[in-house]
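In practice, a research group might receive sequence data for several interacting partners and want a quick structural hypothesis before committing to experiments. The following worked case mirrors that situation: the sequences arrive first, and a predicted assembly follows.
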Amino acid sequence: MKISSREIKKAGLKTWENFKRVIPAILSIFILVSFLKVVVPKEFYAKIFSGIPILDALIGAILGSISAGNPLTSYVMGGEILDQGVALVAVVAFLLSWVTVGIIQLPAESLILGKKFALVRNLVSFVSAIVIAILVVLTLSII
Amino acid sequence: MKNQIKKIISGNFTFFLIVLIGSLVVYFINPTLVGEVFSVFFSLLRKITPILLFVFALIFAFNLFIKPKVVAKYLGNEKGFTGWLVSIAGGIISMGAIYMWYPLLADLREKGMKDSLIVAFLYNRSIKIPLLPFLVHYFGLVFTITVTVYMILFSIINGILVDKIINTNKKI
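A structural hypothesis for the assembly, expressed as tokens:
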């Protein structure tokens, strides 16, 4: 398979555009997460999250659904809040709903693929984020 | 499409500027706190930079070798088990903003692609191979594999479910 220099340049430009889009977001999240790490005591998270898996997953899924941006940002946030002591089930639901539920994209999806399709798809994705989060934690506890 | 990307870039940059200005304001009130915050920030940055570079190298390789036109050619043309397989694989390897894919999927639906396969494609877009090293770094390999397998499995379940709900409502 021969690749022309034009194709390499095109792929490089596309990656550069992606880089420009992601880096400011990641740096911002790093600064905010650093503030959280220094200012907010770890016990605070225990107060937000109940310790009841399904409820924690629900809170995580709601937070993930209303957030938007590159999945990289959600991995950083998820990883850091897990480090702060937030339950894994909540973090997984947060990560999954961030990438599978698109509240921000909903108007565009409704317009092009149909309102009913977009609403049902996002609702089903939201519920499955909670179900998968619980299944992942159960699976990891068995492995 | 280009306007959409420009909007996101400028939005992200504005957000970054707001965070920087906010940090500067806090610095004038409590310099020790901001010093501590930025020490945590730089240690995070040191930890992440090598993985980030690796991730962008993978994104470059994907941009170079995977062409949206090739993915689109196979999507919607297959039915049954192969249809599921193509939708799942297509979703995983597809790159670019999700907005780019909506018109194409609408077009493929008119040509006979089932809603269930569109759902599977969109769900699997969440699995991004170039980003997996990041997930492995934060959560470990076993976690990454477990989540990925469940996501692929649920893309099929969700596809069937959404198709059933939409068509049941159509019948009523």
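Before designing any experiment, note the following. The mean pLDDT of chain B is 85. Residues 31-65 of chain B form the longest helix (35 residues).
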